[in-house]
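user: Here is a favour to ask of a fellow structure person. I have my own habits and do not want them to colour yours. Could you put it straight underneath, so I can go through it closely?

assistant:
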Amino acid sequence: MKKLIFTTALLCSFNLWAQVTVDVVLNPMGNFKAKTDSISGVAEVTGTDVSAKNVRVDLRTLKTGIEVRDKHTQKHLHTDKFPEAILSIAKGKNGKGIGRISINGQEKEIKGTYKIVGKNLEADFSLNLPDFKITDINYMGVGVEDEVKLHVIIPIGTAAATPAAPVSAPAKVAQPVAPVKAVMPPAKK
């Protein structure tokens, strides 16, 4: 039992270190950040090479600090149809990397930089929103610039440490269930 509790705590702790921050510039002026820590996956480091695959970010959990802006973000990212951003593969060496990311049903190549900070890999890259069919984001005369900058922190580990299960649509409210009574067989002597 202690082993199960330790393993569960260890798996959950990986997500405490994972975070995505999106820097968004507004036109005519201003900016905001959207953040989430709902990310699964790890980076692997071998010598000077780094890699990651199947890193998933639940876009429905992006928070900007303003509820109405969060709702607009979900609408423009089409999170009802595409709830995740998925980094299918990434490879890097000497602080520079390349990968493939899928957002809004569109998969594109990305390039960026990274550094190892303690037990985490921190990566920075930019996305051109129209490349992912995300356009015309305006609210009351203020629009989002086409380019957004991302800062991603993921733990360094092994791919088996954090299984990445696909994110499903939000669950419906469960109906109450009658309690189940567990019966343990008598211990063998």
Remarks:
- The chain has one domain: 12-161.
- Residues 1-16, 159-189 have pLDDT under 50 and may be disordered.
- The helical segments are 2-17, 67-77.
- Residues 2-17 form the longest helix (16 residues).
